[in-house]
Amino acid sequence: MNVLHIIPSISLHYGGPSKAVVELCAALQQLGVNTTIATTNAAGEYDLAVPLGRKVDVNRVSVYYFPRQFFRKPVMSLPLINWLKYNVTHYDILHIHGVFSIPASAAAVWARRSSTPYVIRPCGTLSEWSLSKKPALKKLHLALVGRGNLNGAAALHATSEG
Known about the structure:
The chain is α/β, with parallel strands linked by helices and 162 residues long. It contains 5 helices and 9 strands. Helix 3 (102-113) runs parallel beside helix 5 (135-152). The N and C termini lie far apart (30 Å).
């Protein structure tokens, strides 16, 4: 099985979800699952000094980094979105980390258009506390693509009841 993980960044600057995805992929590979991560080079106010647009090894996990563009937050990468458009069909399933990020949203849209199943890991973004931060933007996102992305997911990967 080939699984593509999509997350805005795997820089430790962003904390738990970024660290967990690399560890999750390493554990899955030990079980015989082929995993790949598609992400950006975002690291807070800085960009990671990594090769862009080609496969690199991070702790024995294949990672494709794409350049962050335009602004620091939210993380945006047209090359990543374009790569997803043409590559989601090469994977059996997508594991999307986050709900409100541009890469996560684009991955879900491309997956649905290509009938590729996907799992969404909200990473706490659907909690009451998180939804109360920038509520107008999140309501707009949910109305435009977020609700469709959530409803189209084969499953949600939650690590807590909240």
